[in-house]
């Protein structure tokens, strides 16, 4: 039996510590322990990096003694099994590293276990005019609030690609949604001043912006990065499809790395495109059978899907289709009816409706016909 069957590499801090445990401290028979030391096999990792047959030859001992030694080393160096309760307790202890930014939408925050999570990419998907930018502006306010009022007490970098950010609208949302904060003297100006707006005019300029951010985020107490919208940046690039996909791949990797490094929420908006007839045939629930064959129907000709493609979809941890939790490791797919008021987005009900089957990925235009159509190119 080789190392692979005895040793479980946890890949985290506990696993590394256990793997580096000294052979002399494991409790082997003194004679066997001395043989390991003489052959310069010092740690559990050294021993478990070889098969039992290789160890037997190197140590010049019998297979029975080798198996017994490997068993003891494996047991001593394997990280302990953790119960679900233990994992939950550990998560609570490390909440400062894995916290959430409240959306102040009670039902959505409950579904996401506290709000938009730190350290990952969260995507907002929807057609133009549906409320993506309004949602982002309210999040920016939430991140800038003092902690005493449920905020993160930090700065916000808001990359406003389509010039939809409005300081006047931000203050209106604040006054209507958070009057206890904004009616304090000078608070409205202070909160608005914490939101730093960048307006890159090209993908190259945007790339330069985010590369500079990595060094400044921690130094300047930045607690949220918003990109509104990623689709608009790429749609302005008059380049071959393969080159645009390569550019998108680089930005995916960089943004994921930035989120993990800085431990802040990164929220990116994405637009939609029409799904063509050929694409609908990829899914069994989007075609009906006739005489044993799949027949496409016109029902799905105008079906809307998120732009930017499958690689981008896999990169995001949370996908919100305004306001529908379409992808989350913390929640089943849920839909929340909402409306937009002077105070921003408000839920009509805090009780989400659980979605199943094709309803999870359906995007309703709600009367908007101005739809970005990438045909799956990026």
UniProtKB/TrEMBL annotation:
InterPro entries: AAA+_ATPase, DNA_recomb/repair_RecA-like, HHH_XRCC3_RAD51B, P-loop_NTPase, Rad51_C, RAD51B, RecA_ATP-bd
GO CC annotations, alphabetized: Rad51B-Rad51C-Rad51D-XRCC2 complex; replication fork
Domain of life: Eukaryota
SMART domains, per database record: AAA (SM00382)
Keyword Lipid metabolism: no
Organism from which the protein derives: Thlaspi arvense (Field penny-cress)
Family: Belongs to the RecA family. RAD51 subfamily.
Swiss-Prot/TrEMBL GO biological process terms: double-strand break repair via homologous recombination
Protein name: RecA family profile 1 domain-containing protein
PROSITE patterns in the record: RECA_2
Molecular function GO labels: ATP binding; ATP-dependent DNA damage sensor activity; double-stranded DNA binding; four-way junction DNA binding; single-stranded DNA binding
Annotated RecA family profile domain residues: 97-272
Xref: PANTHER family: DNA REPAIR PROTEIN RAD51 HOMOLOG 2 (PTHR46456)
Keyword Nucleotide-binding: yes
Localization, UniProt: Nucleus
Signal peptide location: none
Keywords noted in UniProt: ATP-binding, DNA damage, DNA recombination, DNA repair, DNA-binding, Nucleotide-binding, Nucleus
